[in-house]
Amino acid sequence: MKIMKRQEFLATPSGTLYQEYEPSFFRDLQIKYDLIGRNDFVVQNVSHGAIKCEGPADMLLQLDLAQFDGRSVEMDFDCCGREGIFPDDDALYAVWEKADIMALIQKLAECL
Q1: What is the reported pLDDT for 95?
Q2: What pLDDT does 5 receive?
Q3: I need a surface site. Which of 18, 37, 58, 105 has the fewest CB within 10 A?
Q4: Residue 84 falls within a domain, yes or no?
Q5: Which sign does the torsion angle of CA 99, 40, 26, 91 carry?
Q6: 68 within a domain of the structure (yes/no)
Q7: pLDDT (0 to 100) of residue 38
Q8: Which structural domain, as residue segments, surrounds residue 24?
Q9: Per residue, what are the HEC states of 40-81?
Q10: How does pLDDT run across 29-86, given as a tens digit for each residue?
Q11: Residues paired with 18 in a beta bridge
């Protein structure tokens, strides 16, 4: 894993696995895709935002059905949106390297 500032991070290729990083704190696992302009990009959340839904209201409904009726929540790992945060250039990102991703894949395979 490599910690980098925003401008370096924006130069990473489409398909970069990362987490927003504040000293000693990692946020959700996400995938960075193509840039939109010079300071925005397409992003896919791989954790909590990957619920298959038709929008925010439907996501809340799906979560309520899961919590109160025991229904399964279907995940959608092809749903992307804009990052659109535009933090300053000192914002930090923890970028996963190939070895990190391979180790995660092996660990996830153990869950099957």
Answers
A1: 98
A2: 95
A3: 37
A4: yes
A5: positive
A6: no
A7: 85
A8: 2-49+77-110
A9: EEEEEECCCCCECCCCHHHHHHHHHHHHHHCCCCCECCCCCE
A10: 999 999 998 888 999 988 777 888 888 899 899 999 999 999 999 998 887 887 887 7
A11: 30, 95
10, part of any domain: yes
The Cα 71–Cα 62 span in angstroms is 8
CA distance 28 to 1: 15
Cα–Cα dist 32/66, whole Å: 29
What confidence tens digit (pLDDT) does each residue in 6-18 have?
A: 999 999 999 999 9
Q: Residues near 63 by Cβ (< 8 Å), separated by ≥ 6?
A: 51, 73
Residue 28: other Cβ atoms inside 10 A: 14
For the chain, how many structural domains are there in total?
1
Neighbouring-strand partners of residue 95 = 2, 18
